[in-house]
Specification:
Elements (H helix, E strand, L loop, with lengths): L1 H19 L4 H12 L7 E7 L5 E7 L11 H6 L2 E2 L5 H5 L5 E4 L1 H4 L7 H7 L4 E7 L7 E7 L10 H41 L5 H15 L4 E8 L4 E3 L2 E3 L8 H7 L2 E2 L12 E4 H6 L3 H8 L4 E9 L2 E10 L7 H9 L1 H35 L4 H12 L7 E8 L4 E9 L8 H5 L3 E2 L5 H5 L5 E3 L1 H5 L4 H8 L4 E9 L2 E10 L7 H54 L11 H13 L6 E4 L6 H11 L7 E5 L5 H9 E2 L11 E2 L1 H4 L4 E5 L6 H13 L1 E3 L6 E3 L3 E6 L3 H6 L5 H7 L2 E4 L10 H16 L5 E2 L1 H9 L5 H15 L4 E2 L24 H15 L10 H5 L3 H10 L10
Parallel strand pairs: 20-27, 20-28, 21-24, 24-27, 29-30
Antiparallel strand pairs: 1-2, 1-6, 2-3, 4-5, 5-6, 7-8, 7-9, 7-13, 8-10, 11-12, 12-13, 14-15, 14-19, 15-16, 17-18, 18-19, 22-23, 25-26
Amino acid sequence: MDIENEKKQDLLLAFHSTLLMSRTKEELITNIHEQFRRFFPFSHCSLLLCSDNRTTLRPYVIDPVSKLRDHPLFNWISHHDFAVDDGINNVVLATTEPVVIRISDYADKPDAPTHIPIIRESGLNEVLAISLPAESGAIGMLCFFSENENTFNPHVYPILQSAAPIIAKSTVSFLRQEEIRRRDAENEAIMALNNRLIGIRTKEDFRKIIDVDLRRYIPYQENNLLPYVREKQAYRMFSYDVLPERLNDPLFRAMANHDYPDMNLRRKSHLPELTNVADLVRDGIPWAKVVYQMGVRQMLHLKLLDGNEVVGQLVLMSHHEGHFTSAHISLLQQITFQLAKGMANILAEMEIRRRDEENQLLLEISSAMNSVREKRELLPAVKQLLQTVLSFSDICISCYDFSKGTYKVFARDNTKTQQHPDWKSVEAAEFPIQDGMHNIALATNEPVLFNHEALGRMHQPHIEFILRSGIREVACVRLKNKNEIIGSLVLLAEHDGAFLPRHLSLLARLSHHFATAVSNIIANERIEAQLVEINRYKEQLEDEKHYLQEEAKAGYSQNRMIGTGPEMQKVFNMLSQVSVTNSTVLLMGETGTGKELIARTIHDASRRGNKLMVKVNCAALPPSLVESELLGHERGSFTGATEKRVGKFELANHGTLFLDEVGEMPLEMQVKLLRAIQEREFERVGGRETIKVDVRLIAATNRDLQKEVQEGRFRSDLFYRLNVFPIVLPPLREHQEDIPALARFFLNKYAKNVGRRINRITSEAMDELMAYTWPGNVRELEHVIERSIIMATGNVLSEMHLPGRKNGSQNKNSGSLAVKTFEENERSHIIEILNKCNGKIFGPGGAAEILDLKVGTLNSKIKKLGISKLDLNY
């Protein structure tokens, strides 16, 4: 026995010497493995240490050859705290004798410790454990693992019991050395971090300290730095260092843009706080589940306080439970003050920079506004600048009309709301000032913020439209220039919390610039409108002067009607009914029945009588110039358009437009005429501005338009537009009782014009007039009287020079045949053809077609030969 004891003593001394040579805990476990493999077989060994309060055990070092390392949960089991009182650990720690644990005895029990299934799944079936004794009690245990059962022979137990105190002392020595090294490293880290944190001013430098320097001493996988936003009393993600794949993760992007009210955690002090994410999930913290899904298992939080003021929070994250140690927490606690100061300095620098940028923004906006002269240019010029500091989608300016108690949108740039299908219904509408929003903004100098709930309580159609468009928040500030309240500046945002108090402060400063700009634009618009109105009146006066001169040259000065017969009285009765209205009138009748005179009578008797009646002879307009003649054209709009021209529609504004011979209008022009009649607005040829007109229409034709419609030569829709109030003028042969009165009227008129004193028509001459059929109607009668006056020799008109009869002065025996020049013959021939065509120049059956001349050539000849309406008799 003495020999055996001596041998055991020699072995223990050698074992003790080997352990003392271990410099790291990894060498320690390797040496233990090698020494004990000399006495009994096993797979691997591990060393577990008790916590300070001896309630838990945590692996201190695991054999490098351990089969547990291949298990998926090795990281968890190597960092997990196992309860001492689990039915196994407490048995081992309660005795100094080795304890054999058969895994099969516990694996199938429902209350088996959590590490038992992991050990079994790793192919291990038996464990030999012995406590490590010290003066104050067991500091932990040493465990040997075997793949087979009944591996451990009791004859090795004495050696194991003798070695346990030696291992315990070596372990305690290692722990003391580690603590010394830890403190030295901690002090070194504190000094290094303090030196790096002194004078920090930029976000980038601060991030580098957290992402690089701090990670050297506290290894972690990810971090978040969250400043405290005082206006919202919440934290917002400011800087982060995460896995690259996290940046494209929708869950992470949503979290990065979220506000966290005190992180929903109970912070009692500025000390670091260690949290298992699984515990937060069980507590129902909303964001914790997302963090857990992202693989984060443990978080180390540090609230940053500058004095008593919260400036932010630092969060270090690990993908493993039990990753952060008390040493990490101690180190973080040592640099809390410096981290908080660094964060406070950065936020102060950012605030100074923000104010400088805000002042620069105001200068840029003011400069941009100073160059704006039209309201459509105002908001596009400043919106992009504003969106660099304010988060909004739509911006508009409202102008108040206090006399009506309403407001209109003066200028807008609506990216979001104009996409809604109901946009057209509110685009140009007026809204009440007392809408729950503008009346509140009107009552204060400060900007007013309306959230989604407040907007929903207003129950106004236009506010409900804003909500339907996806707007969540509205900021409104009134615009006051000197002592005049002009309107309000309104910004609309698509998300809640878009406008912070500092944003509202910026809006208050901006309102003065906007008020001045809007006042200037309104003043410019008034001046420009006055100039446009002056120019318009000037042009209109020039056009009216020119038109009246042309009318005077044409002799259109007839201003009263003659007719006592029943047919004409019927016409006069219809005139009295329609004249006082603005209805469209269609005059129908044969050539020469006085359609233009009737049109002038209607115009003179209407409320538009003091304005122009503009006549358009539709038969005399070339098709290529019809649109320009009716609607006008801009300079350069086509070849030959050397100056701007006002069209007949625009010239007749507030007056009457008389469309004579409307039945002669080509089909292609009827379409354009129909649009102008329907819309009462048009654009000049080559122009962009829409011109609105207030024109009364009177149309005249000697054709049967219903027949023309049936035969496809006249548009039915245009016919029904014109045929509102039709008046049919009777031919002269149907009211011959009016011939004497008409003859006497023309006698007085033309006798005075030619300077003759002819005051009577003989009864024989009057009988001739009454007996004639008058195919040319009243116009023919007028020309016959004029010709007879010219041919008369005395003071009494005794002979009528009617067409188709030979008068005494034209007796075939009375003198030789008069010889005419070539021009006289050409003039007579053109007059004859014009009479035959009823004055129609172009188009099918027109004089130009019969004479085989171009329209322009024929017009030139008519002008050159001095042919006027007085020469015609159709």
